[in-house]
């Protein structure tokens, strides 16, 4: 039974641990946070990823925790409604696609694995030393340990990737935008409703999901790469306040609430692109290897499918990690590339450059319900997402 260390306890890590345990491996998950990370934003599970959830026996629980969002409302600077869209269309969802809060999915995956998998919270990897028999791992807080394999499932700014492959700059491709999300009081009394206020080069929003007493504020903006300390939250909040200073609608109130937000998040909208996802006995999965960016809407689906394929490939290879890693990359590469293609096109509709483009977009939203070919137009919007989400046939390992 191979001992496998997984760095990252969000989605890809616990999902991988689930499948590794099923195939007879002995996974350990190390997570930098002191406890399971709550919060986060809405995420979608569709296509092949939904099939993975079904095979895990977790689909009913995932659907039970769905956001149940109903409508997206677009408003002007004074809060006047200028357009609407169904929540399904706004999220590019169709059929059985499920939208869930990231924190809820992380909890479901953790609960499904905590009795069979060792979790080490409040710790991180500081060094990896590959030997003839495995990898000697040095931790920030725990004593060194030996593992047969190490997996980086630790996100866009992966620590494991940095240790095994070097600095991140060659692998992270900035898409020219930034995103910030954090919890705020639901002062608008939103109920499964998304409010969006577009402005040239920016988009501001607020939403509240089913059974949620508070709301999430979301800010998107286009920008050249910004220099800031990723661990300095106060600096990031100041940066966001400066970018959105002078904006109308509810922006001043949301920025005021930012000071007390327990889960503030800001980062570039970027993709991870790598020629190979493994080095020796170290391999990457999820955003660490092929993050498609939040603009694609497929990061979670890639993490779930990637975890399934990696674990299955290792099992099918009978303990030969070289063969397992090679099969993992071969089987998943096309699926990754198809889903990463979605991001650039999606961004064009998420953050518009000019006031004229915004007016035209709102005009089309108001016009669409009255057009004879509206179903065909909706199909054109969702079809690329559906094709990407199903661009892999899952093997039975």
Automatic annotation (TrEMBL):
Molecular-function GO terms, alphabetical: FAD binding
Lineage of the species this protein comes from: Bacteria, Bacillati, Actinomycetota, Actinomycetes, Streptosporangiales
Species of provenance: Acrocarpospora corrugata
Protein name: FAD-dependent oxidoreductase
Residue ranges occupied by any FAD-binding domain in the UniProt entry: 2-337
Domain of life the protein comes from: Bacteria
UniProt cross-references to InterPro entries, sorted A to Z: FAD-bd (IPR002938), FAD/NAD-bd_sf (IPR036188), FAD_aromatic-hydroxylase (IPR051704)
């Amino acid at each position: 039974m191979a001992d496998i260390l997984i760095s990252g306890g969000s989605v890809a890590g616990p999902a991988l641990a689930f499948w590794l345990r099923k195939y007879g491996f002995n996974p350990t998950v190390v997570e930098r946070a002191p406890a399971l990370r709550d919060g986060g934003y809405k995420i979608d599970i569709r296509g092949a990823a939904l099939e993975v959830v079904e095979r895990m026996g977790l689909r009913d629980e995932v659907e039970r925790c769905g956001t149940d969002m109903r409508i997206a409302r677009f408003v002007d600077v004074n809060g006047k409604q200028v357009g609407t869209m169904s929540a399904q269309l706004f999220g590019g969802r169709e059929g059985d696609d499920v939208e869930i809060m990231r924190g809820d999915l992380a909890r479901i995956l953790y609960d499904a694995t905590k009795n069979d998998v060792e979790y080490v919270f409040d710790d991180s990897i500081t060094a990896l030393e590959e030997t003839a028999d495995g990898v000697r791992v040095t931790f920030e807080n725990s004593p060194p340990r030996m593992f047969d394999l190490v997996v980086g499932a630790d996100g866009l700014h992966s620590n494991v990737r940095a240790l095994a492959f070097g600095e991140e700059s060659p692998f992270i491709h900035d898409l020219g935008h930034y995103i910030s999300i954090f919890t705020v009081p639901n002062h608008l009394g939103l109920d499964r409703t998304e409010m969006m206020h577009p402005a040239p080069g920016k988009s501001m929003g607020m939403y509240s999901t089913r059974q949620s007493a508070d709301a999430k504020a979301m800010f998107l903006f286009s920008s050249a790469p910004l220099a800031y300390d990723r661990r300095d939250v106060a600096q990031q909040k100041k940066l966001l306040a400066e970018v959105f200073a002078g904006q109308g609608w509810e922006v001043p109130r949301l920025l005021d609430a930012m000071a007390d937000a327990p889960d503030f998040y800001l980062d570039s909208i970027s993709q991870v692109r790598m020629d190979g996802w493994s080095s020796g006995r170290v391999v990457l999965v999820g955003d660490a290897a092929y993050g498609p960016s939040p603009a694609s809407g497929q990061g979670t689906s890639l993490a779930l499918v990637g975890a399934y394929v990696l674990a299955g490939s290792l099992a099918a290879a009978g303990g030969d990690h070289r063969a397992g890693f090679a099969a993992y990359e071969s089987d998943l590469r096309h699926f990754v590339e198809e889903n990463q293609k979605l991001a650039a096109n999606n961004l064009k509709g998420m953050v518009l450059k000019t006031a004229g483009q915004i007016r035209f977009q709102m005009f089309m939203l108001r016009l669409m319900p009255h057009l004879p070919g509206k179903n065909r137009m909706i199909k054109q919007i969702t079809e690329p997402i559906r094709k990407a989400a199903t661009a892999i046939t899952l093997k039975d390992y």
